[in-house]
Amino acid sequence: MASLSLLWGWVLMAALSTGANASFVEQRPRWALVRRGQAETLSCFLKDAQYPYMSWYQQDLQGQLQVLTASLRFSGDKEVKSLPGADYQATRVDDKELKLQVANVTQGRTLYCTCSKDTVRSLPWTDE
């Protein structure tokens, strides 16, 4: 996939719902093909109000999982993060929606939206 991205100047981003919270969130679009250096906006919709905190994670082509946004709960909450391969801005639109603007994309990645009952600042198995 990486060589195809370099050859044609496109980067594949996938937004997936997996694991225990799969039935609690819905992501749109499910995947996106983005021209190198361009931007895309993804949305995550909360389906269960018992899990009001929402977060975004990324998995890069090497399989490394990273927290993109801390747990955002309230309308207007925002977080910005720059990582190699893309810049991110997450915005909690309302009590049901979390948007993620991904800009300056240069590497493929998989993005995950999650929800929780409490705030999450880092992955338990990392030092972030």
UniProtKB/TrEMBL annotation:
Keyword Heme (UniProt): no
Q: Output the InterPro entries linked to this UniProt entry.
A: Ig-like_dom_sf, Ig-like_fold, Ig_V-set, TCR_variable_domain
Which residues are the signal sequence here?
1-22
Ranges in coiled-coil conformation: none
Q: Which UniProt keywords apply?
A: Adaptive immunity, Immunity, Immunoglobulin domain, Receptor, Signal, T cell receptor
Lineage: superkingdom: Eukaryota
Q: Where is the Immunoglobulin V-set domain?
A: 27-118
Q: Which PANTHER family match?
A: T CELL RECEPTOR ALPHA VARIABLE 1-2, T-CELL RECEPTOR BETA CHAIN V REGION E1
Protein name as it appears in the record: Immunoglobulin V-set domain-containing protein
